[in-house]
Sequence to fold (157 residues):
Amino acid sequence: MSSYIKVGENVIGTDFMYSKTHEWIAVKESPARVGISDYAQRNLHDLVYAELPKVGSKFKRGDILCTLESIKAVAEVYAPVDCTVVEVNSALLDKPELINKDPYGEGWLVKINIEERSPSCPPKNTQTTSENFRDCTLKLSFNTRPCYFTTIILNTP
Fold:
C-alpha cells in the first residue's frame, strides 16, 4: 500500500519513481505499473479519452507509450524504461476520468515488463527509505543508456 504526501496542491506517491516528463513507475511491482503524476493530470484537466497501447507492444525509453486527451489538450505519455506492455487498464477506455480521480491507484495506464534490470534498480520488495535512495536519484542503466528517476525523501522531525 502506497503512502502519499501533499506538497502544495500536488499529491505525491512515495512508493513510485518519477520521470522528468511526469510519468511514474512502480518498479517494486512485477509487472511494473506506469501512470502519470497528480501534477500532470491536474494540468491536463478533465480527461476524456485514453489511447492505450496493445498488449505485447515493445517500447524503448522515451518512445510515446500512449496519448491522453483532455478538454484542454492532447498529451503524449512516454515510456519511462525499455519495456513490453503486458496489461492495459481497460477501465480507462470507458472512464478516462479515473486518471483525474486517482492517478496513483485506479488511474494507472499500463503494466509493463522491464526489458533489462540493472543492479542499481531497487529490489521489488524493499522499503523506499533514505537508505535505499541516499542521494535521492536512482540511476538505472538499460541498454547502456542512463535513465534518471527522482524519488522524494522528506526528513521530518
Observations:
- The longest strand covers residues 64-70.
- The radius of gyration is 15 Å.
- The mean pLDDT is 78.
